[in-house]
Specification:
It is a single chain. This protein is an alpha/beta fold and 355 residues long. The protein folds into two domains: 222 residues, L-asparaginase, N-terminal domain (Rossmann fold); 115 residues, Rossmann fold, CATH 3.40.50. Strands 1-3-2-4-5-6-7-10-11 form a nine-stranded mixed beta sheet. It is globular, with a radius of gyration of 21 Å. The protein starts with 5 loop residues before the first strand and ends with a helix. Pfam families: Asparaginase (PF00710), Asparaginase_C (PF17763). GO terms for molecular function: asparaginase activity. It comes from Paraburkholderia piptadeniae.
């Protein structure tokens, strides 16, 4: 496996990998970050006791020789992590590298291989911050590369195919998984084991990809990428500290009080139902909001919208509602909004209503 940040070639160590020399094919950069798609286990029947991120990007490409028929591919090993351990510094590095590549006239699109655990968060972060209308497609796998019927090779082939499609341009960051194409804003992981693990519960997939054919059934409507004020370059290492707490039967205020004492800038609540919050936790959050901590109500349910309660609660308490964003995507948007200088509940609500 190559070191993180290295550029790879299948045949020899050069500055890039090219799986085809056809000038008519789209030029796609594949950035590998690790994950199950790059995982390996002692035997082919083991799909849970594997080590993530141990297979290098060169091996991932070599397992899909038909990539040569759909794109000229250059590849880089940006990281080799289990995505449960995704870090803010790696987000910064990845987002900046994506922007660098897309600014080049020699690159038509980017594919990112990623672990499934935090894929939806990384994809949404890039959806809000990438400054190009060229396609960016994130993909992954539920089975390690060593498994029988590993799903990674086909997902990678489909992701490169989507990234090379003219129809993907201007759609923001996409997720290609199990033949479906999802918007980064909508997609969530819905299974711990199934190869059909990613869905867009509220409004469905954008389209599909199969046997080299890419078809979109709808377009992304909300502003993204070049139409947002968010940029990783301005965030850098200065990520505002935002944490997630959960409401449940018998919840206490211990977590909220500890986070406020630690100096967090924002708290996202994974509430019950329509973002409802246990009375004890709500009191603690209201006190936190009065001290200037941004409070966003989301839901632990998995689908649906968290609507504002208006003067009855949110307006009085200074809370913001997350709409259809789950708590983890709401955290991503809140960090970016705070870093961009949006501090008041009114300004933050406008951000959540827009993006």
């Amino acid at each position: 496996m190559a070191a993180a940040g290295a550029s790879l070639t299948i045949a020899a160590m050069n500055t890039s990998t090219t799986t085809s020399t056809s000038s008519a094919l789209p030029r796609i950069a594949v950035l590998a970050t690790g994950g199950t798609i790059a995982g390996a286990a002692p035997d082919a029947t083991n799909t849970s006791g594997y080590q993530a991120g141990v297979v290098g990007v060169g091996q991932l490409l070599a397992a899909v020789p038909s990539l040569a028929t759909v794109a000229n591919v250059q590849a880089e090993q940006v990281a080799s992590v289990d995505s449960k351990d995704m870090a803010l510094a790696l987000w910064t590095k990845l987002a900046q590298r994506v922007d660098e590549l897309l600014a080049s006239s020699g690159i038509d699109g980017v594919v990112i291989t990623h672990g499934t655990d935090t894929l939806e968060e990384t994809a949404y972060l890039l959806h809000l911050t990438v400054k190009s209308d060229k396609p960016v497609v994130v993909t992954a796998a539920m089975r390690p590369s060593s498994a029988l019927s590993a799903d990674g090779p086909l997902n990678l082939l489909n992701a490169v195919t989507v990234a090379g499609s003219a129809h993907a341009k201007g759609q923001g960051v996409l997720v290609a998984f199990n033949n479906r194409i999802h918007s980064a804003r909508d997609v969530v992981k819905t299974s711990t084991y199934a190869v059909d693990a990613f869905h867009s519960p509220e409004i469905g997939a954008l389209g599909w990809v199969q046997d080299g054919r890419v078809e979109f059934q709808r377009a992304v409507v909300r502003p993204h990428t070049t139409a947002t004020p968010f940029a990783i370059a301005s965030t850098g290492a200065q990520w505002p500290v935002v944490e997630v707490v959960t409401s449940y039967a018998g919840a206490s205020r211990i977590a909220v009080d500890a986070l406020v004492a630690a100096g967090v800038k924002g708290i996202v609540v994974a509430g019950t139902g329509n973002g409802s919050i246990h009375a004890t936790v709500q009191t603690a959050l209201a006190e936190a909001a009065a001290k200037g901590v941004a409070i966003v109500r989301s839901s632990r349910v998995g689908s649906g919208h968290v609507m504002r309660n208006g003067a009855a609660s949110d307006d009085t308490l200074g809370f913001v509602t997350a709409g259809a964003l789950n708590p983890y995507k709401a955290r991503v948007l809140l960090m970016l909004a705070l870093a961009a200088g949006h501090a008041t509940p009114v300004a933050l609500q406008q951000v959540f209503d827009t993006y």
